[in-house]
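Q: I'm writing up a methods section and want to include an example of the input and output format. Could you take the sequence below and give the corresponding predicted C-alpha cells, formatted cleanly so I can copy it straight into the document?
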Amino acid sequence: MLSAIYQSFTKADVFIEMYKRFFDFIAASFGLVILSPAILVVALLIRLKLGAPILFRQVRPGLHGKPFEMVKFRTMLDALDQHGNPLPDEQRLTKLGTFLRSTSLDELPELWNVLKGDMSLVGPRPLLMEYLPLYTSEQYRRHEVRPGVTGWAQINGRNSLGWEDKFAMDVWYVENRSFWLDLKILLLTVKKVVVRDGISADGQATMERFRGNHR
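A: Here is the clean output for your methods example:
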C-alpha cells in the first residue's frame, strides 16, 4: 500500500516537473525576445554608469544543491576598503542599482538560466553556496525543486521576511506546487514589482546574511 502511494506521488512529481520545464522553456524564450529592447537599454545604462562588467555572475545552489552560475545585471560598485575587502552593500549600491532592484529589472538575465534549465520561473530563490551546511534537514527541502526567478516567499514579503519565515514558505511551495499556484505567483509577482514592495529588510540595503539556526 505504502509503495503504491509512494509511486503515485513520484509519478505526480515527474509530471509536474515535465510541465514546468516545458512552460519555462517556452515562456523564457518568449520573454527574452519580447524584453530584448529593455535588456539592451539596461545593459547600456550599466555600461555607462557602472562600467564593466555589465553582468553579475555567481555560483549558486540549484536542484538538489547542484552548483550553477546565476547571471543578473550588476547593481553595485566594486568598491573596496583599505584592506581590500568589499564595502557594505549600502555603500556600493548605486541609484541605478536601487532602481533596477526595485523594478526587478536586474533579474532579467536569469531568463537565460531558465532557458538552460538551471532555474525555473517559479521556485525558491537561489541563495549562497555557503548557506548549504547551515540549513536544517527541513530547510534543505527547498532544493527538491529548481530555484526560481520568483517564488512564494517573494510575493509574501520578499526581503522583508525573516529567514525562518522565508524558508518555511519555500518548503510550503515544494509541498504544494501546481500549475495554478505557479500562475498565481507569476501574476502576483507583477503586482509586487509595480508597487515595489518588500525590496529590502529593515535597516538593510538588501537582506542580512543567514548565519544558521541559533536555538
